[in-house]
Specification:
Number of helices: 37
Radius of gyration: 61 Å
Strand content: 15-25%
Structural class: alpha+beta
Length: 1512
């Protein structure tokens, strides 16, 4: 590593120039330089002394503990620095070391002309005959180019010791390869070169001692050096420089190179015979406010003026008007010690002595240097030579520092004290000391001489350094002694750096401080807590004030390179104290100076090459033979340099250009617990950490610093990178500028809060500049020139475009499959033909599903709040989980808008997929992942100030966490709110088949149908997949009748009967159904790849049916449906069908009338007679097989069937008025069955049912009369059942609040209506075609009268009059309940009581005889008309269910007439209440037992017994 040019001990270093000679590669040269720089410190005791007696002035034997310090550089100092020699000898190189690579000269004997150094030799190596002459010629050129150097040495690296060395030029030093070198090999070589240097320094010192004086550097001399009028360091070889001289005895260097330096010194020295010429030449001008006689001692000299800078003093003295010629006259009166000539001679002698002292300092002879410097500095002080007096003190201080660092004894010379009082008042014990160097402190009260000397030096430093600077400023007031600004600024920076080092270690010269000052070792000393920073002298403010004296004035005419060096040195000192803002101010000033300087240098370089400056770098690279510029050619520290500048001014930096990694955000501690990262995977955590770090830095720095100042700094950085040129820097700082002026928030959807604080014209200019920079870099072959995109909220949303309904997968659960299977097995369905597969998926609540191997469409919402368009090179989704591929290229995002971009992607496997953001590659920007931000967000302003200066940004961005320092724990603050990112969870299912409807038998998918009619059509499904079969298929339907039914059921005021009717309509009569063929179920649910299957669908005409949808859910499960454990996914293909339903036969009116049982008795009576064969009317046998009747025979057939059914003689008459609404005649068939079929064969009774046929003309109403058997219900008051399981509840509160009796009637009407509908049905048929259908009879409603006619009583009574004894034919029965009896004949009235109920009945029978056709007042007057033996009212035994009992009563008619005997059965004791499920009601449906208990019951005989008495 190169030495620090502004180190406090820089004046003690020997500068050596390292140059590549011959054939050598850059990488090899850099490695050789690095090997030499490791040995830049040489101990004098290790150097062999020169044996020549005239070369012993700087012999290392005189001071073996001394150290020779080298500054090995690969570049020549600028002319402004060379012009300061010998005032500052360390600025000019004393050695020129040529470095050659032996590997480049090694060739194969087989290929003598092969000079490829990369190939390894396989045989004996040989050298070309011209190699030695080539290197010798190179060294001669080196001596001619650098004639002022004391030593010219050639080092031949990687020359093996065993190889042939005959070709090596004379005087060259061979350096073996690293593998053959020892630890001391390179050190020995450096010591040999140092021996040559010390020997040649003797000759140089003798030549200086022969000079009468040395000229001081002046401002005008610096100007000449800047303009280049002085002799340049690269001299042209001439014959005059080859003459022999006094250095002929040097063994390693040609003696002809000695004369130019001696000639230069003689030119600089004044003539000894004309002292006035020196005075006049050195003081051509006089300051306006100066005195005629300079001060002779420092006591007469005033201190430095704070309000008057050194630069202003120089400019004032050098630019003043010429003074009067009389003031330039010098008195020639008197000679001796006080004369002007003697003073000039003594001053010149002191100057020469100070130069000799500097040579001793370079040679490592610090004691001799200290003695020489003290002696001559005292002389310079006594004669008022201020400039050299200050230089002498500066070199003395350097000697003292080196002696302290080496741990040697020394005494501070009295000349170092500014006055006597300060010298006597200062005590070494007043300042705390830290003795960690080699000279340890023996005790606090009796320190060793070494420690005491170091303490005195540390206590002296502040005053001594200020005193030296005051002398330099004082010298500027003297005409001709104005010091160049470069010298003063460098001196001030070195002093400030020394004081800063001492301040950081506690105000003492510790070993760490001396190591840092001498060897530039990083300072890692721990702070001394026992010493307060306030008590350390000098303070930070004092050091900073001293440092800013080095700042050149705006009017100072100094080279650009020197100005930048001064500003950089000042910035480095300020960084010691953490004064970042002051440092940034200097850095910004240096950039301002560099921009025009670099631009001018490019113009000059282009002019020297003969090209136009506008030709750019491409022409320069062609001339230089370079194909392009690589990243390695740029200075790596430039990024940190400019990044630190932006950080200080509050410019948000991204990860790639962040100057300090400590400023990066630790997401484990910065994120709020209320806003955790959305995902747990490492990839999402990393993206979230980067995004949140940018957000926090940007939001904090948005309110930090001046906005306009940030823009100015960024514009300067852009201009600086343009003139370098640094393509990456241009893009980076342009992006940073866009980030600063951007909105910095997640805007609302309307975009009203989006504001870019930069004019549209400047935005366009910067965007165009970025495009030009990218194009220029591409032409030069520079790759990967990209910056971080400036808007972290680029992605505002990602959504999956819903695919076609036929392609959307639907999630199904195993419970749905089990429910469907149970429904199919038990044939129990809910309302609306409830089917879990028939429901539509919720698009919002359902999860997003993708199918593996199929493309899906995504819509990415991107925002661009800036006024220029963006070229998107690639866009793809950032996902976590299964493999997913998506990309879109060559997109354009328009200016100031939110734009939707369509993107296709495909998942390659099944599993879980999460879309975390988008990976976007914008032209000129790095490809990075942008998270998805949907919710608006803006940074919250800080309510409390937690930090001042740059610590404010640290306090807000760095969160405390366990295990960190206490300083960070103090900075605890409320977590800053961060925007919440959104992730899109997706589920990728296995590959699924794709089924389409390939054929439909309906034209245009429409059909016309009549009410009650059934029609079928076919649907053909085809599997279009090439390799995936369908192994699961489910069919469901949706129709337009479900909506009205659902709306009607939503009415809470409906009665239970209406609810049951609506549910039954939806359950029992679906509009569409699948006519399942008698085939294996698995065959019906399997469709192979490329195969087809046909489904037959049946449609039933229902009122309100206008459209229907046939839905097929299919999937590839890969397993039997019974083995599904969790859930599966199906696809759906549907076919809409338009249905037009026209009216056919409508039930217009209904009536039920009671029917006498006489016809039944007559038919039964004739059947009995026919069985005995004694009836004369056997020829009129009725046809029992005839079950239909038409036309005029309808009633005859109807009456002939009475009495033969299972119901016996109990019938009622049903009258139906039917209307034909179809414009064509319809044939009606109405069927009535006496009994219900069994569960195994429900249609058997319908085959034996009685059928009534009728043809109804269009628009006509026809009445059909049928006999309906009376019906008995065990529990006519049972609760009305609930068919929909969803509506089944334990307690139902009737919203209508009906009375108990009315609820009783409603339930009774409901159950008898249901029973009536089980016994009748009707069909219709259109004549002339096969169109037929069913008649909807569920519209009937039964009144109380109708119910009474239909109902069969629980207790039936049948009375029969029989004769006694032998008079069997005394009684003749003419009808079922009418008997003809003779008068005065004893007869028996036999009453049979039958219990139909399911419960036993404890009752009594009460007979009520009366006269027929008489009013009630006289009907009961039976005296002398009718007599009976026994009681008319008697208790009956308990009748069990289905039991009967007969009761006899003797009667006798006493006169002719017609008597009527009624019967009443009255319940004596209350029986059990019938259960809720006695009539089929579901347990718990409607549980109210109150309806079953109404008190004791009474049953009346439907027909009284009519007794007609006649006299024979």
């Amino acid at each position: 590593m190169a030495a620090d040019p502004l180190s406090p001990i820089a004046p003690a270093r020997v500068r050596a120039l390292l140059l590549p000679v011959g054939r050598i590669k850059h990488s090899r040269f850099a490695s050789f330089v690095e090997r030499l720089q490791r040995e830049s410190i040489v101990r004098l005791g290790d150097i062999s002394p020169d044996s020549r007696p005239n070369r012993t002035m700087f012999s290392p034997l005189a001071f073996p503990n001394g150290i020779l310090l080298y500054d090995l550089s690969t570049s020549m100092p600028p002319p402004s620095h060379l012009s300061l020699s010998p005032f500052e000898l360390y600025r000019e190189p004393m050695m020129a070391i040529g470095i050659a690579d032996s590997e480049e000269y090694r060739v194969q004997q087989s290929n003598g002309n092969d000079h490829d150094g990369h190939e390894e030799s396989r045989g004996e190596m040989a050298r070309s005959p011209g190699d030695a002459s080539e290197l010798a010629e190179v060294m001669r050129d080196l001596r001619e180019r650098y004639p002022k150097m004391l030593v010219h040495q050639l080092l031949l690296f990687d020359q093996a010791q065993t190889s042939d060395s005959s070709w090596v030029p004379e005087g060259a030093i061979i350096v073996p390869p690293l593998r053959e070198s020892k630890i001391t090999t390179m050190k020995t070589i450096v010591c040999d070169i140092s021996a040559l240097l010390l020997a040649e320094m003797t000759t140089f010192a003798r030549s200086i001692q022969g000079l009468p004086s040395v000229q001081s550097p002046t401002v005008s001399q610096g100007d000449v050096a800047k303009r280049g009028t002085e002799q340049p360091p690269l001299l042209v070889r001439s014959d005059s420089q080859l003459s022999t001289g006094s250095r002929s005895a040097s063994p390693a260097v040609d003696m002809r190179n000695e004369h130019p330096r001696i000639a230069m010194l003689r030119e600089m020295a004044p003539s000894p015979t004309a002292p006035g010429n020196y005075e006049e030449g050195s003081r051509s001008t006089t300051p306006n406010s100066g005195t005629s006689t300079p001060s002779m001692t420092f006591e007469d000299m005033s201190g430095p003026q704070v309000s008057r800078s050194f630069s202003n003093t120089i400019n004032h003295s050098s630019s003043g008007a010429p003074r009067d010629s009389s003031r330039d006259r010098v008195s020639t009166q008197g000679f001796g010690s006080g004369s002007v000539t003697e003073r000039a001679r003594n001053k010149g002698k002191a100057r020469v002595g100070l130069v000799i002292g500097s040579l001793y300092l370079h040679a490592g002879r610090w004691n001799d240097a200290l003695r020489e410097l003290v002696e001559n500095t005292t002389i310079a002080r006594s004669f008022g030579d201020h400039l050299w007096h200050a230089k002498g003190l500066e070199n003395i201080l350097t000697c003292l520092l080196l002696l302290s660092w080496a741990g040697m004894d020394f005494k501070i010379p009295p000349i170092c004290w500014s006055d006597r009082a300060s010298y006597t008042s200062k005590s070494p014990d007043d300042t705390p000391a830290s003795s960690t160097i080699n000279f340890s402190d023996p005790g606090p009260h009796h320190p060793s001489p070494k420690v005491a000397a170091v303490r005195r030096l540390a206590a002296l430093l502040p005053d001594l350094l200020n005193f030296i600077l005051s002398i330099y400023i004082r010298a500027a007031t003297v005409a001709g002694e104005s010091l160049p600004q470069l010298v003063f600024s460098d001196c001030t920076i070195r002093f400030s750096k020394l004081l800063a080092t001492v301040h950081l270690v506690g105000g003492t010269l510790t070993y760490e401080a001396l190591q840092h000052a001498v060897r530039s070792v990083p300072l890692h000393a721990s702070p001394r807590l026992s010493i307060s920073r306030v008590s350390i002298n000098p303070s930070r403010n004092d050091i900073a004030s001293m440092l800013f004296r080095a700042l050149p004035a705006p009017t100072a005419n100094i080279p650009v390179l020197d100005s930048v060096t001064i500003l950089a040195g000042m910035a480095s000192v300020l960084s010691f104290f953490g004064l970042q803002r002051k440092k940034a101010m200097l850095v910004r000033e240096s950039i301002t100076i560099l921009i025009p300087g670099i631009a001018q240098a490019r113009k000059i370089g282009a002019a020297e090459l003969g090209i136009h400056p506008a030709a750019g770098l491409s022409a320069l690279s062609v001339v230089n033979g370079n194909a392009g510029v690589t990243t390695e050619e740029l200075e790596p520290g430039l990024n940190e340099f400019l990044g630190l500048l932006g950080y200080v001014y509050g410019v948000p930096q991204t990860e790639s250009r962040s100057p300090d990694r400590l400023k990066s955000v630790d997401m484990a501690s910065t994120t709020d617990k209320d806003h955790p990262p959305p995902e747990e995977t490492e990839g999402v955590k990393q993206d979230y950490a980067i995004a949140m770090g940018n957000f926090l830095r940007s939001s904090v720095l948005q309110t930090f610093g001046s906005f306009n100042l940030k823009l100015d700094v960024l514009r300067s950085c852009i201009s600086f990178c343009e003139v370098l040129p640094d393509f990456r820097g241009v893009l980076h700082f342009t992006a940073a500028l866009f980030r600063v002026v951007g909105p910095g928030r997640v805007s609302n959807p309307d975009g009203k809060d989006v504001l870019v604080s930069l004019a549209r014209e400047e935005q366009m200019r910067l965007a165009t500049n970025m495009s030009r920079t990218i194009a220029a870099a591409s032409k030069l072959g520079v790759r990967d020139i990209e910056a971080d995109y400036w808007d972290d909220f680029l992605i505002r949303g990602v959504r999956v475009v819903e695919a076609a309904p036929a392609n959307v997968p639907i999630a199904r659960t195993k419970s749905e499959l089990d429910e469907k299977r149970q429904t199919q097995e038990q044939q129990i369905k809910g309302p609306f033909i409830y089917d879990p597969f028939a429901k539509k998926p919720d698009a919002k609540a359902a999860e997003k599903l993708l199918v593996a191997g199929e493309s899906s469409v995504f819509v990415v919402e991107m925002q661009n709040p800036y006024d220029f368009e963006l070229e998107i090179e690639s866009l793809k989704l950032a996902t976590e989980g299964v493999d997913f591929a998506s990309i879109a290229q060559n997109l354009t995002l328009g200016p100031f808008r939110t734009q939707h971009i369509v993107l296709e992607g495909c998942a390659n496997a099944a599993g879980v997929l999460k879309v975390t953001g988008c990976v976007v590659k914008i032209r000129g920007c790095l490809e990075r992942t942008f998270l998805i931000f949907v919710e608006p967000w803006s940074p919250e302003p800080d309510s409390k100030v937690k930090g001042i200066g740059l610590s404010a940004t640290e306090a807000l961005t760095i969160r405390p966490s366990p295990g960190v320092s206490t300083l960070l724990q103090i900075k605890r603050a409320k977590p800053r709110s961060v925007p919440t990112s959104t992730t899109i969870p997706l589920t990728v299912i296995n590959q699924q088949p794709l089924v389409i409807v390939s054929h439909v038998s309906l034209p245009q998918s429409a059909m016309m149908i009549l009410e009650g009619e059934r029609k079928s059509f076919s649907i053909t499904l085809s599997n279009t997949s090439s390799n995936i079969p369908v192994d699961f298929l489910h069919l469901s339907f949706l129709d337009s009748t479900a909506g009205p039914l659902r709306a009607a059921l939503s009415n809470k005021e409906l009665s239970h009967g209406d609810v049951h009717e609506l549910e039954l309509q939806a359950m029992k009569s679906p509009a569409l159904s699948w006519r399942r063929p008698e085939t294996d179920a698995e065959v019906l649910t399997y469709i192979g790849p490329g195969e087809s299957i046909v489904f037959d669908i049946e449609v039933v005409g229902k009122p309100g049916l206008t459209d229907a949808t046939v839905i097929f859910d299919y999937a590839n499960l890969g397993m039997p449906s019974s083995e599904i454990k969790d859930r599966f996914f199906t696809r759906r293909v549907s076919l809409p069908v338009t249905v037009t339903v026209n009216a056919s036969v409508q039930l217009h009116r209904l009536d039920v009338a009671p029917f006498t049982s006489d016809f039944a008795w007559s038919n039964q009576h004739h059947s009995r007679l026919a069985a005995k064969g004694s009836d004369e009317r056997l020829g009129h046998r009725r046809l029992a097989s005839r079950a239909t009747e038409k036309g005029e025979n309808r009633f005859k057939s109807l009456l002939d069937r009475v009495g033969y059914g299972s119901n016996g003689d109990e019938h009622c008459l049903l009258l139906l008025d039917l209307r034909n609404a179809w414009p064509a005649p319809l044939s009606i068939a109405l069927q009535v069955r006496d009994s219900l079929g069994s569960d195994d064969a429900p249609d058997d009774e319908w085959r034996r049912a009685y059928t009534v046929h009728e043809t109804i003309q269009p628009g006509h109403v026809s009445r059909l009369v049928v006999l309906l058997p009376r019906m008995y219900l065990k529990n006519p008051h049972a609760p009305i059942p609930v068919l929909n399981p969803a509506n089944q509840r334990q307690f139902i509160v009737n919203a209508n609040k009906l009375p108990l009796e009315q609820e009783h009637m409603i339930r009774e009407a409901f159950w008898y209506r249901e029973e009536v509908l089980k016994h009748i049905r009707g069909t219709w048929k259109e004549n002339g075609n096969d169109r037929h259908g069913d008649i909807e009879l569920r519209g009937i409603r039964l009144s109380s009268r109708m119910i009474d006619a239909v109902r069969a009583d629980e207790i039936t009574m049948n009375m029969v009059v029989v004769s006694n004894g032998n008079h069997e034919h005394a009684v003749r029965q003419t009808c079922r309940s009418r008997f003809e009896v003779p008068v005065d004949e004893f007869l028996t009235l036999r009453t049979r009581v039958y219990n139909r109920s399911a419960l036993p009945v404890h009752s009594l029978l009460r007979l009520q005889p009366s006269l027929s056709h008489q009013p009630p007042s006289s009907a009961l007057d039976l005296d002398r008309r009718l007599a009976w033996s026994g009681l008319l009212q008697r208790a009956l035994p308990i009748l069990g269910p289905g039991e009967s009992v007969e009761v006899d009563l003797g009667i006798c008619a006493l006169c002719s007439g017609e008597f009527e005997i009624g019967a009443v059965v009255e319940e004596i004791r209350l029986g059990e209440v019938p259960s809720a499920d006695a009539q089929g009601g579901r347990p718990g449906s409607f549980s109210d037992d109150l309806l079953g208990g109404g008190g004791r019951r009474v049953w009346h005989a439907r027909e009284p017994c009519i007794v007609v008495a006649n006299r024979t």
